[in-house]
Amino acid sequence: MRMNLEIKPLTPELTADFFDFFDSRAFSDNSPEGPCYCTRFQMTKEQEKAELFGQVDACGGGSVGFMCALRKIAECQIKSGVLQGYLAFVDGVSIGWCNANDKANFPIESGNGAHFYAPAEKREKVVACFEIAPDFRGKGVATALLQRVVADAKAEGYTAVESYPRLRDKRYEWDFTGPIRLYEKVGFIKVSEQDNAVVMRKDLTI
After folding, report:
1. Mean pLDDT for all residues in the chain
2. How many domains does the chain have?
3. N vs C: which end of the chain shows fewer Cβ within 10 Å?
4. Can you give the CATH number for the domain in which 105 is found?
5. pLDDT greater than 50 at residue 1
6. What is the pLDDT of residues 118-145, one digit of tens each?
7. Percent of the chain at pLDDT above 90?
8. Structural domain harbouring 163
9. Cα 72 to Cα 80: distance, rounded to the nearest angstrom
């Protein structure tokens, strides 16, 4: 049966849908990658220390305080436009997410250890993360999200889209960077290997 799939750019008006996805569906299969609100890609280690770990006690301490501090950061990042990306909806319910942003908006090394490598001379978009609700994995949602990122990036005058999927020797159910084959399907090519990741790139000037 064909899904009624709709993809929308994240805006402050979709904040409730964003949190509904991450709180209710994203990690409902006990994924070891959760809990998360996809905030730490946009933070330096210094920001993470001050804005996240430095606020845990003020939010009550422990895991509850950590999630409270993380949520406040996400709210601020969405409101300010620091956190950008796309939500996937089926019948009005948020079931997928892709973190995609201007490369210049990411620190070269983020708070969670992700590397975005050398700054670009021209405008480039980076795909940092995917999260798909368990019931919708393997149904083309991530592909549709990536295709939308590429289409919008080209329309907005970006010269390329990059991503850095992890090198893995077998399928990993909770692969938040997306498998290499996902990018190949949408026309990305392998540029190089860096650390434990592959630099996948799609030239939008061709």
Report:
1. 90
2. 1
3. N
4. 3.40.630.30
5. no
6. 667 789 999 999 999 999 999 999 999 9
7. 63
8. 5-203
9. 12
Q: Given the DSSP bridges, would you call strands 93-102 and 5-9 parallel, antiparallel or unpaired?
A: unpaired
Comparing CA positions, the residue from 93, 196, 94, 86 lying closest to residue 145 is 86
One-letter amino acid for residue 121 of the chain: E
Residue type, 199: V
Token reading at 69: 């501090």
Token code pair at residue 78: 């969405």
Confidence grade of residue 60 (pLDDT, cut at 50, 70, 90) = confident
The two three-digit tokens of residue 23, written as one number: 């709180």
